[in-house]
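Slide 14.
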Amino acid sequence: MLQAGCGMLEKLLAADPGYRGPRVPCGQGHEAGFVSYRDKVIDTVLGPVTLTRAWYHCAACGHGLAPRDAGLGVAGQAMSPGLRAMNDQAAAAGPFAKAARLLENLAGVRLTAKRVERAAEASGTAAAAAVRDRARAITDRKLIPLPPSPLPDKLYAAIDGTGVPVTAKETAGRDGKGEDGRARTREVKLGVFFTQNEVDEHGYPVRDRDSSSYAATFEPAHVFAGLVEAEGIRRGAGHVRQLTILGDGAAWIWNIATARFPSVILSLMIKQCCDLGGCVEDGVVDAAAAGFRSCLTGV
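Slide 15: predicted structure.
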């Protein structure tokens, strides 16, 4: 069945070989001339497909291009967009070798673990760049998101950082907290925006279903701050009656909160403040609060 579908897809794609005339823009301000038709093998969810498309070459830039590739979303890629999306989902679920087996067992697609890894990392890099570009456009006021509708009365955000185990090459040159001084993790900074309008039977707030949106990065705090601000703007932080940011006593969290959201209400998560006063026992709340005030000094 997959072979039949693959053959039909190949014939469908062959209906447009991608010839766009004798010359096309190269993307760098020049024109590229038609050279010939060239084949390219693309892995799809149905199997490998051979795509024959017009190839152009720009003498000024010294590089070639196939307009058909861009139209199909496979420029510089050997996987179809559908297979890349499937691969990303499988790779996010566990180790890459397991993801490769999952793709073969469920979809009949055979990829090596290394190829699963490379494709997933490429997709992640592209997605992160797109998020940064969008965040920069929002914070620079070049892109103005409409306030959410209906607009919530209150908006909450929780910010924290945690260590993520990574391979040795990812920690090269970084100091660690262990006795040997070697780093075995990298800190990922996380932020989640959400709303809560109900309480449970014990009177504790319950997060609204599907209200959470996230910002995350391995980049330094000043980069993360832009992502958080952009997500806050997108979620209507400038329009709600009250914005509350939750965090532990880390100074970088409160620097972001007060610098990016001047009217924010800061809420200290006492249970996260063991470094400020040990376990949460009687009297420790005062110690944590004192540490919290010291974090805000100079903000």
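Speaker note: Residues 274-299 have pLDDT under 50 and may be disordered.
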